[in-house]
Amino acid sequence: MLTAPAKNDYRLGFTSLASETNLAALPIEGSIPPWLTGTLLRNGPARFEVGSDRYRHWFDGLGMLHKFGIGGGAVSYANRFLRSNGFVEAERTGRIACSEFDTDPKRSFAEALGDRLSGRNLTSNNANVTIVPFRDGYLALTETIAPVAFDGATLETRGELAYDDALPGQITTAHTHYDRARRATFNIVTQVGRKSQYQVVRIPDGTLRRELVGSVTVDKPAYLHAFSTTERYVVIVEYPLVVNPLDLLLRRKPFIENYRWEPGRGTRIHVIAKDGGATAGTYETEAFFAFHHVNAFEEGDTIVLDISAYADAGIVNDFKLDNLLADEAGKIARAELRRYRLVPGRSAAEVRRIAAPATELPSIAPRTATKPYAYAYGVDAAGADGVATFDALVKVDVRDGSVTRWFAQGAYPGEPLFVARPGGTDEDDGVLLSVVLDANAGTSSLLVLDARTLSQLGRATVPHHIPFGFHGLFR
Ligand code: CO
């Protein structure tokens, strides 16, 4: 039996937030740099139960959008649930109605038949993972296909959008890559069926038309949370967490439970040309697992690829809510930051460890994407015993592996995002923004750190906790 988290407990970050608020000015401690002007949007789960039904996994919770408006040293805050079909049906029925990453609704045969006959769309669009700009607003994305549009000013959900194409496929990544030169967004769409394949697509600016660039046929598709791009290539890392297509089509278990860890397959890395879609190389390395790529770039014809790598896929189970909320929680696995080098003409990828601490929920200065770079930022799970979440912010110099860290007792940070100081030239001349749970106070804050030193400049505190989220953007 789970007990309610104590006030000084990290587990508050895995509990629901019911309220939707709009606050003109948050109390500020320290100071927010006057040059910092813009909006930080964040996405993540915020409701982990519906009636007496409970979601099983951190990734399942119903998505909420958060908005921090920053300007003139002041910070405003607003939040709203994404009106996904999962949320709308939960409100309507008081039960979990849509399948998520690791939760299926409990439906009797008659109820399931009724769902079908009603014509309601119960394919989840609980897009709680990332946010990308689109036309005059934004899209919230997850790994089911349909994006959900929302208004950046009000956070109101505009609704699910349909892609303007006939591309097959059931699964995509939420970590799209924008290519300024090609005026298009790249993504991977996995088709699972009699023929299974990873399809590289490009979506021209302002459209919802996924143009097929190239594809890789596969017998058992891997679970892909993210991928990399360089100036000329798309890089897909195929970890041995794979699914028998029939198991996914029959869906007798929640989505991710159908995947199997088959380390004997090793890991394959596919390099596909952005222009023309030809496979430029396939490389092999030992079995490992990752959610997130950090950055990739070309050095002549060699591709350098930095990844937050786990020894195996156990981290997927570590994020089950029963584990995260347990009275005696185990630590979550720590990723290590690894560099893979893909040298044409060699079938084996070269690999070395850049740094030992986790660099999970990694980020970089946006202008260094697809380029040689110096700094990766992220969260670590250094872990006091019994703390099953991220508890430090880290900055890794990827050139020499040196690590700078921010840590505070009882503080649990989320994904750090770098914002460059206008006119600054050094890669780390700017701030890091991270939403941090202060478990002792039972509140969350927007933390502003000097990105050079990870020293605290200021924080703006929300009057309640913000459940641990995933990704966001600053504009
Ligand atoms: Co992610």
Shape summary: globular
Question: What does the main sheet amount to?
Answer: 6 strands, antiparallel
Average pLDDT: 95
Q: What is the tally of helical segments? A: 5
* Low-confidence blocks of residues: none
The distinct bound ligands, ions and cofactors come out as: cobalt (II) ion
* CATH architecture assignment name: 7 Propeller
Amount of helix: under 10%
Q: Assign the CATH class.
A: Mainly Beta
Any idea of the CATH topology? Answer: Methylamine Dehydrogenase, Chain H
User: What radius of gyration results from the CA coordinates?
Assistant: 21 Å
Secondary structure category: mainly beta
Query: How many distinct domains?
Result: 1
Q: Count every beta strand, where a strand is a DSSP E run of 2 or more residues.
A: 36
First-residue to last-residue Cα separation? 43 Å
- CATH homologous superfamily descriptor: YVTN repeat-like/Quinoprotein amine dehydrogenase
Strand content: 35-45%
